[in-house]
Design goal:
about 180 residues; mainly alpha; about 85% helix
Length: about 180
């Protein structure tokens, strides 16, 4: 599934292969894969939002607002954020891009052979296995990305703080040097 997905980039949609292309896209369950990807992103975004809320707002609102009132509102805000951050537009162009790419890169004969395979028991098993693998791999990818982003963010913050301190120190030295010269 990953090899097939890697080949799916931009192209123009050919109506000559429309029927077989649509059938291949449906048999590969690309819509299901994209929705799973979107759901994994939303889970990560909700966690990110919750962490941000806990870090930034926890102490600021403590004691001033009832947690019974606040918790559902913050959860709704986190879900809204996740929906906005992770909307792939499965129905708004991505599926059409898959179709267009298949139509451009595969001949009618290739599409018919793919359909024959995907319609067979081994082909259906292949698709199920690909979807199962993606469900297992997506969380791993997310965790690795979160770790990488976290490390990069900490390193960036350290370097930024160091750079700002250096610039401030040089600015102070330049002002003091100018004052001594007078």
């Amino acid at each position: 599934m990953r090899l097939l997905g890697a080949a799916l980039l931009a192209a123009t949609y050919s109506t000559a292969n429309a029927g077989p292309v649509d059938d291949v896209v449906e048999k590969l369950k690309i819509r299901d894969y994209l929705r799973a990807t979107e759901n994994e992103c939303r889970a990560a975004a909700r966690n990110h939002a919750r962490n941000q809320v806990n870090a930034a707002l926890g102490s600021a609102v403590a004691g001033r607002v009832s947690s019974e009132d606040l918790a559902p509102r913050l959860e709704k805000l986190a879900r809204t954020y996740a929906g906005e951050a992770c909307r792939l537009g499965v129905e708004d162009g991505i599926i059409q891009r898959y179709r267009a790419t298949y139509a451009k890169t595969l001949s009618g004969e290739d599409l018919e052979a793919a359909l024959e395979f995907l319609s067979s028991a081994p082909g259906r098993n292949f698709v199920r296995a690909g979807l199962a693998a993606n469900r297992e791999v997506l969380p791993m990818i997310r965790r690795r990305q979160e770790g990488q982003v976290s490390r990069a963010s900490a390193l960036f913050q350290t370097r930024l703080t160091s750079l700002l301190a250096e610039m401030s120190r040089k600015g102070t030295e330049a002002r003091q040097g100018g004052a001594k010269a007078q």
